[in-house]
Write a structure and sequence with these properties.
Helix content: 25-40%
Strand order of the largest sheet: 1-2-3-4-6-5
Shape: globular
CATH class: Alpha Beta
Distance between the termini: 27 Å
Strand content: 25-35%
Largest sheet: 6 strands, antiparallel
Structural class: alpha+beta
CATH architecture: Alpha-Beta Complex
Length: about 130
């Protein structure tokens, strides 16, 4: 696991630390080809330079976000503002994480992608990659 992500996880409260560690392990396991790093102060996984999954500490809990998650058609994932194609779920305990759902979402993160890598070059316009 990426050392910076390990440091991020260790910096969390005990309960959040467990959530973060489990999410990082699962994302690494199901997206082994992804590059992971701290991006905008949060752990993020990239496929060919395109952000696909990540998590961050929010007031409500740990937010697992999929950059193209609005297209996953998954009831448990809440769409973002509508400006982008993101969707997320908030976890407040490790027990809330459903490994089967997470595995399915990570497969969709690989298969359904919008081009966030070039969003600045395209002046905010997203194009579908996959």
């Amino acid at each position: 696991m990426n050392k910076d992500i390990q440091a991020y996880n260790r910096s969390q409260s005990p309960g959040d630390k467990k959530i973060c560690a489990l999410l990082a392990e699962e994302i690494d396991r199901h997206l082994p080809e992804a590059e992971s790093k701290i991006w905008h102060a949060h752990p993020v996984w990239f496929l060919e330079g395109n952000p696909v999954a990540g998590y961050s500490k929010q007031k409500a809990g740990i937010r697992l976000m999929f950059w193209s998650g609005a297209g996953f058609e998954e009831e448990a994932l809440q769409p973002g503002t509508g400006k982008f194609k993101d969707a997320s779920i908030i976890y407040t305990s490790e027990e809330e994480i459903n490994s089967k759902h997470l595995k399915r979402w990570l497969k969709k993160a690989r298969d359904i992608q919008w081009d966030y890598k070039n969003i600045v070059k395209r002046k905010g316009v997203l194009e579908r990659l996959k």
